[in-house]
Amino acid sequence: MKIATAVAQQQGTKLTVESAELDEPKANEVLVEIKASGICHTDAAGRDFATTPYPVALGHEGAGIVKEVGSSVTTVKPGDHVVLSFSYCGHCENCLTGHPANCIHLNELNFGGHNFDGTHRIHSEDGKNISTFFGQSSFSTYSVVDEHGVTKVPSDVDINLLGPLGCGFQTGAGTVLNYLKPEFGSSIAIFGTGAVGLSAMMAAKIIGMDHIIAIDIHDNRLELAKKLGATETINSQKHNPEEVIKTLLQAGIEYSIDTTGVPAVIKQAVHVLKPSGTCALLGMAGDVTFNIQEEVMGESKRVVGVIEGDAIPQLFIPKLVNYYKKGLFPFDRLVKYYKFADINQAFEDSADGSVIKPIVKISN
Ligand SMILES: [Zn+2]
Ligand SMILES: [Zn+2]
C-alpha cells in the first residue's frame, strides 16, 4: 500500500516526508495506522550517527489503531488502540526470563533496518529498500510491526498522547519501578530533567520515596520538576550537587540516575551514592574513567546500564496509562504537538531543550 514516511536519506540530513510502498503484514505481523509519534533522542542518533543503514524511515514512539493482523497474531485485533515499543525476539533466554529489553537480538532487531525474517517492509517508489527503525518506523502513516512490538491500550484515552510511553517515559519510569525497585523511605538523585529524568521522578513519587532530588542546568526545568514531585532541586551551574546532597544526607543517597551521558555528570551521580548505593546510567555516553578502588568497589557501589526501563511493554505500558488516568503520572504536561509537515522543527525544539517531548501528529 502507499504510505507517507519521514526518511533520513543520508547521515546528518534533515528528514524528508516521502511517498513509499509498504508490504502486507506477514503471519506474525500487525498493520497499524499511525496516529501520532513522539520524538526521542535516539531518532536524532538514527539521523546523525548511522545507527541503521540509510535510507532509514525513523520514528519509534508510535501510537495508532490496528487495521489488519497476520494469521498467527492473537493479542490484538483490528480496531484496537496500540502503542508501539521496541522490538524483541521473544525466544531467547533474556526474553523468556522476562527481560525483553535485554534480548540478545535487540541491536539487530531495532537497528539492523529489517524485520525478524531479514526482509524489508518499506520500499521507495523506485523499488529500493528503506530501513525500518526499532521495528516500527512510526513517522509513517502506516507501519507493519511484529506482534511483540505492539501493546494494546485502553481506547478511552487520547491515542495521540500515548506513543512516548513506548520509549522515553517507559525508560525513566521503568528504571525506577522495574529495575531499581527502591525501598520505602529511600532517596534518589536524578541528573537531567528531560523526558526520561522527569518520568523517573514521577515514578519515584508514585512509590513514595523520601528525597527526590532533581539536578539540571535550566531553572525552568527545575521549576517543572518541583511541580511534578521533586522534593529538592539543584542547578548544577550554581551549586555543586555533591556538596548539596552530602548536606542533606550525610552518608550519601541510596539511588541515582544519569540521563545526560555527560562524563563529569556521571561521575557526580556515582560520587553522591552512599556505600552500596546504585547508579543507573540511561544516557548515551562515551568513555568515562573511574578509580575502581576509590570510587566504586571500595564502597560496594553498583553502576549499571538499563535499557528501556527493563520493561515488558505489554505489561508495563497499560500500568502507566492507568496511573496517568488517576492523575499520578501526568506526562501530558511534558508534550507539545506538531504537524507531520513540521517534523524537522520538532526535532530542533527537542535538541535545544525548548520542548521536553514533541509529538508529531501523523494522520490528522
Ligand atoms: Zn530475545
Ligand atoms: Zn527512544
TrEMBL record:
Residues 12-360 form the Enoyl reductase (ER) domain. Its cofactor is Zn(2+). Its EC number is 1.1.1.90. Coiled coil: none annotated. Keywords: Metal-binding, NAD, Oxidoreductase, Zinc. GO terms for cellular component: cytosol. It comes from the Bacteria. It is an enzyme of class 1 (oxidoreductase). GO terms for molecular function: aryl-alcohol dehydrogenase (NAD+) activity; S-(hydroxymethyl)glutathione dehydrogenase [NAD(P)+] activity; zinc ion binding. GO terms for biological process: formaldehyde catabolic process. Belongs to the zinc-containing alcohol dehydrogenase family. This is Zn-dependent benzyl alcohol dehydrogenase. It comes from Lentilactobacillus buchneri subsp. silagei CD034. The gene is adh1.
